[in-house]
UniProtKB/TrEMBL annotation:
Names of the cofactor(s): pyridoxal 5'-phosphate
Enzyme Commission identifier(s): 2.8.1.7
Family that this chain belongs to: Belongs to the class-V pyridoxal-phosphate-dependent aminotransferase family. NifS/IscS subfamily.
Record domain Aminotransferase class V: where: 2-361
Organism: Sphaerimonospora cavernae
Keyword NADP recorded: no
InterPro entries in alphabetical order: Aminotrans_V_dom, Aminotrans_V_PyrdxlP_BS, Cysteine_dSase, PyrdxlP-dep_Trfase, PyrdxlP-dep_Trfase_major, PyrdxlP-dep_Trfase_small
SUPFAM superfamilies: PLP-dependent transferases
Domain of life of the native organism: Bacteria
Recorded catalytic activity of this chain's protein: (sulfur carrier)-H + L-cysteine = (sulfur carrier)-SH + L-alanine
The UniProt record lists the keyword Acetylation: no
Protein name: cysteine desulfurase
Pfam families in alphabetical order: Aminotran_5 (PF00266)
Keywords tagged on the record: Iron, Iron-sulfur, Metal-binding, Pyridoxal phosphate, Transferase
């Protein structure tokens, strides 16, 4: 199988596997004061330092969670006090932000404003300006990179407007971390979410960056033993956290090379598809994008038919999280695609282990499959 679904999950890096196995073989609760407990705590400390080095923040600014879903929920819940302030987010966010924001603001607990995007997937700032002027705003949450299209958000103007309104800024960086360099000493956000399995760590572990000075959570998601400075109670997932740290360290030293190489492969895939399958369109191509993602619309060809006909290429229609759901991608609809075009869109996402050979094989298979489906459906020839 050619695996081109890194935005759903990336293969575990060997370093992460080793660190996870090593922790699984050892006993110890990171909160215990005896030697076994200190061993577990030191694995967690090392992972915290490694992740902090990747992100350019202090280790003490990281809260380990079960993933980005929890980190997003925690960020919004922690900050939004419900005192009539608004949560401002974007229509193209992952459901872990959108659904959380909707739930948090229901029942008169504040307004929710969802910023639109243009055809290229870029956020429209006008409604943010208006919301900030109207005030009060408690938090603005905008993703750094979109999971379906790879389109990047320029957070600089978002941060500027949010600061002027006296609100906090959160970003869902789940697809960005480990794919492009990030430096939290320069990117002035207050909160940032990530998930280990998108950059080669294990599934089910992630983190929320909480900049020093952000007030203690109004409502933590989990109450209990007070771990993670009260931000997230519960025995720490030491094997998962150790794997996250090892993946962060592995990616940190290779990030520039990996990003350039993966972008080259993605560009080759796009060039091959558009030249051999006239009529196919790349969504968000005019915007800056992640190196490894391409969202391709094959007009009149249902994406699920294409995917079902090529089981040896692992790609995705819409996002993996939403697959099985009958509704078309909210991201593509927000960018102005018709329902039919949204349903005819395949996402290929490449990553650190993708090879040139993978791309050649995928290209041949996709081109052959799309031509075959076109023939069977009797849709317009090329
Ligand atoms: N945000 C984005 C942008 C994502 O792509 C994902 C994973 N698809 C998540 C949040 C949620 O991550 P997890 O499922 O690991 O909690």
């Amino acid at each position: 199988v050619v695996y081109l679904d890194y935005n759903a999950t990336a293969p575990l890096r060997p370093e992460a596997l080793e660190a996870t196995l090593d922790a699984l073989r050892s006993v110890g609760n990171a909160s215990s004061v005896h030697q076994a407990g200190r061993g577990a705590a030191s694995r967690v400390d090392l992972a915290r330092q490694r992740l902090a080095r990747l992100l350019g923040c202090a280790p003490g600014e990281l809260v380990f969670t079960s993933g980005a879903t929890e980190a997003n929920n925690l960020a919004l819940r922690a900050v939004h006090s419900g005192g009539g302030g608004a949560i401002v987010t974007t229509v193209v966010e992952h459901p872990a932000v959108l659904e959380a924001a909707r739930a948090i603001t229901t029942g008169g607990r504040g307004r929710l404003i969802e910023l639109p995007v243009n055809r290229d997937g870029a956020i429209e700032l006008g409604p943010l300006e208006a919301a900030c002027q109207r005030g009060p705003v408690s938090i603005v949450s905008a993703m750094l990179a979109n999971n379906e299209t790879g389109v990047l958000t320029d957070l600089t103007p978002v941060i500027k407007l949010t600061r002027e309104a006296g609100a906090l800024v959160h970003t869902d960086a789940t697809q960005y971390v480990g794919r492009l360099p990030l430096d939290l000493s320069e990117l002035d956000v207050d909160l940032l979410s990530l998930s280990a399995h998108k950059f080669g760590g294990p599934q089910g572990v992630g983190a929320l960056f909480v900049r020093r000075g952000v007030p203690f959570p109004h409502r933590p998601l989990l109450l209990g033993g007070g771990q993670e400075r009260g931000w997230r109670a519960g025995t720490l997932n030491v094997p998962g956290i150790a794997g996250l740290g090892a993946a962060a360290e592995a990616v940190r030293v290779r990030l520039h090379d990996e990003a350039a190489r993966v972008a080259g492969l993605r560009d080759a895939l796009e060039a091959g598809l558009t030249s051999r399958l006239p009529g196919c369109r790349i969504n968000g191509i005019k915007s800056p994008r992640l190196p490894g993602v391409t969202s391709v619309t094959f007009p009149d060809i249902p994406a699920d038919a294409v995917l079902a006909a090529m089981p040896d290429v692992a790609a995705s229609d819409g996002s993996a999280c939403a697959s099985g759901a009958p509704s078309p991608s909210h991201v593509l609809l927000a960018m102005g695609l018709s329902r039919e075009d949204a349903d005819s869109t395949v996402r290929f996402s490449l990553g650190y282990a993708t090879t040139e050979h993978d791309i050649e094989r995928a290209l041949d298979t996709v081109v052959r499959t799309v031509r075959e489906v076109r023939r069977l459906m009797g849709t317009s020839a090329e």
